[in-house]
TrEMBL record:
SUPFAM superfamilies: YbaK/ProRS associated domain (SSF55826). The keyword Secreted does not apply. The keyword rRNA-binding does not apply. GO terms for biological process: translation. GO terms for molecular function: aminoacyl-tRNA deacylase activity; lyase activity. Its EC number is 4.2.-.-. CDD domains: YbaK_deacylase. Keywords: Lyase, Protein biosynthesis. This is Cys-tRNA(Pro)/Cys-tRNA(Cys) deacylase. Belongs to the prolyl-tRNA editing family. YbaK/EbsC subfamily. The lineage of its organism: Bacteria, Bacillati, Bacillota, Bacilli, Lactobacillales. Residues 41-156 form the YbaK/aminoacyl-tRNA synthetase-associated domain. InterPro entries: Prolyl-tRNA_editing_YbaK/EbsC, YbaK/aa-tRNA-synt-asso_dom_sf, YbaK/aa-tRNA-synth-assoc-dom. It is an enzyme of class 4 (lyase).
Length: 166
């Protein structure tokens, strides 16, 4: 009988383990599969609004002023509103070509868990997710996510809630 291949944990999963946070590993490849990934989630009984994307922003054109916003994958971020909420003159998307240098992750694998632990950037969550008990965020690898209690993640990354869309 063939042995089942054990999947190697990501650094982000190890961080959750070290902090005693329960999570479930999931695979939702939003970057490659788009709406089909949401259908996959729904077929597993998971609210698609609980799947979060992690957006890296740069404030005031300052090379050292980065921040992270997490919001449902289907939601649209309002950069002017985020800047207003944070008292910044302006915010814009971080340069995709420099994401690995900025965060250590490729586009689609950015995660508040690792960015908080390794980079210390402030982490913000769309205030609309406060109604959810569980959420899913990237596990630091394309297509791989962790599903955990919202309050556990927010506490771990010292996150705050803000309005990110009108």
């Amino acid at each position: 009988m063939a042995k089942k291949k054990k999947i190697k944990k990501t650094n982000e999963e190890r961080i959750l383990d070290e902090n005693g946070i329960e999570y479930e590993e999931k695979n939702f490849n939003w970057v490659e599969r788009g709406m089909d990934a949401l259908k996959d989630a729904e077929s597993q009984g998971i609210d698609p609004d609980s799947l979060l994307k992690t957006i890296v922003l740069q404030a005031n054109n300052d090379a050292k002023d980065y921040l992270v916003v997490c919001l449902p994958v289907q939601a649209e971020i309002n950069l002017k509103l985020v800047a207003h909420e944070l008292g910044k003159k302006q915010v814009h998307l971080a340069d995709n070509k420099k994401l690995v240098k900025i965060t250590g992750y490729v586009h689609g694998a950015n995660t508040p868990i690792g960015i908080s632990a390794y980079k210390g950037f402030p982490i913000y969550f769309d205030e609309q997710i406060q109604k959810l008990d569980e959420i899913s965020v990237s596990a630091g690898k394309l297509g791989r996510s962790v599903r955990l209690k919202r309050e556990d993640l927010v506490k771990l990354v010292k996150g705050s809630y803000i309005k990110v869309e009108r």
